[in-house]
Amino acid sequence: MNVREATVHPKATENIDEIINIISTLIEKGYAYAVDGDVYFSPKKFDEYGKLSHQPLEELEAGARINVEEIKHEPMDFALWKGAKPGEPYWESPWGHGRPGWHIECSAMVRRYLGTTIDIHCGGQDLIFPHHENEIAQSECCNGASFANYWMHNGYINVDNVKMSKSLGNFFTVRDVAEKYGYEPVRYFLISSHYRSPINYNTEIIEQCKASLERLYTCRNNLDFALENAADGELDNEFNDKVHGRIQQFITAMDDDMNTADAIAAVFELVRDINTVIAAGANKATLELAAKAFDELTDVLGLVYNRNKASLDDEVEELIAQRAQARKDKNWALADEIRDKIKAMGIVLEDTPQGVKWHKA
């Protein structure tokens, strides 16, 4: 998928000491309380509770309830630590045998590995409340600092316009799709819509993504070929202005809440401009600018990363040379015969003004 490996892969079970430290601090500061082996956080003690979901505490409280087995003071109070039931895994703590609550695990791992304030926090839209709201409350009350500068919540994946879920049986994994279409089309599919928007998956759409990627690869391969045969010359100023316009178009889209859909549109407009100058027989300086801009923009999106340059074996190279001589001698029958022989070997030739191009069948 061309995703960089994470620096660390933390586990909640490896950070119990940090979890206990944060809970202890919250109790000391009066934001949390222990009762019969459980520890609960009091949202009413945090004046900014609800600032992420933009819901007043009164509305959130109206939808809350206390389960029969819970002994918290208020319906909105949430668990930081739960006393262990018979047969459950547990850890030692100042409040007895127990385990961490759901939300506190994230706050502890963020603080240990990233610090008290992080730049970007991501997650699905379904985590805004209560999970992320509770993360903010417990982290900021404990650390006395802003928890995250930016929040990025992604939309849902739908399959044939129905939300993907295991219960509906319309669930698939990246590996399932990649087995048939490859990984890069999956990446393209995921960034072809704005990350906050829902995205609809079906086989027709993934085929379209695959075809779009092929257009990008074709453009880049055509650039390589044109550069090998290009003459020296001055940079085309008109094309230079177009390229920098496309780059600015791309930057504007990405600066607009990482609008990858509009950024991809900018890349394809650049592709159209590049195809035009290639067809016009652009010189080396102009083509080098085109290649540099193309590589920079696709690299930001993490696309066109499978450019393994194929090479021809000596036999095919010799046949191509023989065909070129036959064409020069106007021996069209022999040229066609050699072309068919090369095609039978899985190589398709294409005659262009710049010379012979080839690709695998």
Termini separation comes to 25 Å
Specify Rg, calculated over alpha carbons: 29 Å
**How many structural domains in the coordinates?**
3
Compute the average pLDDT.
92
Name given to the CATH architecture of the largest domain:
3-Layer(aba) Sandwich
Strand content: 5-15%
Characterize the main sheet.
4 strands, antiparallel
Notes on the structure:
This protein is α+β, with helices and mostly antiparallel strands and 361 residues long. The protein has 3 domains: 143 residues, Rossmann fold, CATH 3.40.50.620; 91 residues, Four Helix Bundle (Hemerythrin (Met), subunit A); 47 residues. It is built from 12 helices and 11 strands. The protein has a 4-stranded antiparallel sheet with strand order 1-2-3-4. α4 links the parallel β5 and β6. The radius of gyration is 29 Å and the shape is elongated. The model has no long low-confidence stretch (mean pLDDT 92).
List the helices and strands and how they pair.
Elements: H1 16-28, E1 32-35, E2 38-41, H2 57-62, E3 78-83, E4 98-100, H3 102-113, E5 118-124, H4 128-143, E6 148-154, E7 157-159, E8 162-163, H5 174-181, H6 183-191, E9 199-201, H7 203-229, H8 237-255, H9 260-279, H10 284-301, H11 314-328, H12 332-344, E10 347-352, E11 355-360
Parallel strand pairs: 5-6, 7-9
Antiparallel strand pairs: 1-2, 2-3, 3-4, 7-8, 10-11
